[in-house]
């Protein structure tokens, strides 16, 4: 952030330059010298603020989809929200999660590499309890998963990845697939310890139980599509033309749309008394002569000029002139 001097500091600086206490040439040399910034290679910055904002927006949608999915599956109140999106080394992420937790290791074609959806044991066992007919409470002591519990967990989170696919649809069409379910972080090594990851943290509340769900996305996995996370790329994507088949389908629907067409003989203005006294045989004078063409309107827009006639004993109008776009209707 650029420091802004107050008026007193500016006056003091000018006074020092005038009195000779400070040398203007020395100040210029200091300005031109290269400034050294401390850089921690263990915490390499790979995601820009623009990338972080895009990931936040994508996974806010992911959180909403997950809320809907888990609420339907567990038949109880579920609330999931994104807390933060940050970048940190993979090793730091591993050290920050419990020694016994639920680690859903998955791939998402066409991206190459593995990602992790880590679910806190409190949340995971509350889901398991609901799926097995319980009230949704988490046990006081978390033990290793049994074979049946593992199968139930895999089914729950395999379908949860459909929400991730839907959330990323605006950027890329992903096909997430659960590869393995682990409970010990030490047995999970998807990237090198110093590899930068994007960590999306979601706070989760199921009934009275709360905990965290963390989505770990290594930089090396989404590096090929990093440019798509920029606002500029998304703006250009929205302006891309439709595919030919989409245009044809749209044209076909437009061609089948029904439009009201009205041929107006003319207009007239009468007062209420004359209107109330109208009877069969009365004649109303219009504002057009028989030589003037009829105004043919599509909806409320004047599109054609025509002349009246008959076709096979039915009234008809022959189009004699096409009104140019933007021409206003004028009384004749």
From TrEMBL:
<dbReference type="GO" id="GO:0050918">
    <property type="term" value="P:positive chemotaxis"/>
</dbReference>
<keyword id="KW-0966">Cell projection</keyword>
<dbReference type="GO" id="GO:0003774">
    <property type="term" value="F:cytoskeletal motor activity"/>
</dbReference>
<keyword id="KW-0472">Membrane</keyword>
<keyword id="KW-0975">Bacterial flagellum</keyword>
<dbReference type="InterPro" id="IPR028976">
    <property type="entry name" value="CheC-like_sf"/>
</dbReference>
<dbReference type="InterPro" id="IPR001689">
    <property type="entry name" value="Flag_FliM"/>
</dbReference>
<feature type="domain" description="Flagellar motor switch protein FliN-like C-terminal">
    <location>
        <begin position="252"/>
        <end position="323"/>
    </location>
</feature>
<dbReference type="GO" id="GO:0005886">
    <property type="term" value="C:plasma membrane"/>
</dbReference>
<keyword id="KW-0969">Cilium</keyword>
<dbReference type="GO" id="GO:0071978">
    <property type="term" value="P:bacterial-type flagellum-dependent swarming motility"/>
</dbReference>
<dbReference type="Pfam" id="PF01052">
    <property type="entry name" value="FliMN_C"/>
</dbReference>
<protein>
    <recommendedName>
        <fullName>Flagellar motor switch protein FliM</fullName>
    </recommendedName>
</protein>
<keyword id="KW-0283">Flagellar rotation</keyword>
<dbReference type="InterPro" id="IPR036429">
    <property type="entry name" value="SpoA-like_sf"/>
</dbReference>
<keyword id="KW-0282">Flagellum</keyword>
<dbReference type="InterPro" id="IPR001543">
    <property type="entry name" value="FliN-like_C"/>
</dbReference>
<keyword id="KW-1003">Cell membrane</keyword>
<keyword id="KW-0145">Chemotaxis</keyword>
<dbReference type="Pfam" id="PF02154">
    <property type="entry name" value="FliM"/>
</dbReference>
<dbReference type="GO" id="GO:0009425">
    <property type="term" value="C:bacterial-type flagellum basal body"/>
</dbReference>
<comment type="similarity">
    <text>Belongs to the FliM family.</text>
</comment>
């Amino acid at each position: 952030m650029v420091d802004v001097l107050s008026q007193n500091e500016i006056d003091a600086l000018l006074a020092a330059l005038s009195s000779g206490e400070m040398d203007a040439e020395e100040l210029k040399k200091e300005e031109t010298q290269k400034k050294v910034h401390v850089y921690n290679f263990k915490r390499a910055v790979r995601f820009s603020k623009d990338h972080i904002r895009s990931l936040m927006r994508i996974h806010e949608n992911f959180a909403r989809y997950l809320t809907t999915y888990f609420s339907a599956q567990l038949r109880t109140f579920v609330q999931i929200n994104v807390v933060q999106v940050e970048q940190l080394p993979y090793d730091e992420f591993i050290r920050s999660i419990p020694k016994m937790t639920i680690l859903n290791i998955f791939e998402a074609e066409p991206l190459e590499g593995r990602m992790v959806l880590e679910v806190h044991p409190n949340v995971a066992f509350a889901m398991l309890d609901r799926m097995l007919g319980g009230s949704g409470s988490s046990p006081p002591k978390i033990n290793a998963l049994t074979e049946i519990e593992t199968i139930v967990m895999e089914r729950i989170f395999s379908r949860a990845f459909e929400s991730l696919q839907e959330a990323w649809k605006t950027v890329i069409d992903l096909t997430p697939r659960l590869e393995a379910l682990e409970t010990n972080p030490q047995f999970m090594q998807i990237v090198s310890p110093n590899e930068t990851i994007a960590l999306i943290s979601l706070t989760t509340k199921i009934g009275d139980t709360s905990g965290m769900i963390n989505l770990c996305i290594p930089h090396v996995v989404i590096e090929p599509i990093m440019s798509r996370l920029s606002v500029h790329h998304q703006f250009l994507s929205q302006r891309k033309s439709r595919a030919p088949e989409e245009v044809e389908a749209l044209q076909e629907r437009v061609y089948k749309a029904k439009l009201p067409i009205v041929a107006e003989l003319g207009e007239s203005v009468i007062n209420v008394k004359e209107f109330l006294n109208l009877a069969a045989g009365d004649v109303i004078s219009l504002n057009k002569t028989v030589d003037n063409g009829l105004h043919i309107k599509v909806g409320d827009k004047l599109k054609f000029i025509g002349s009246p006639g008959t076709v096979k004993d039915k009234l008809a109008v022959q189009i004699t002139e096409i009104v140019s776009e933007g021409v206003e209707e004028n009384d004749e």
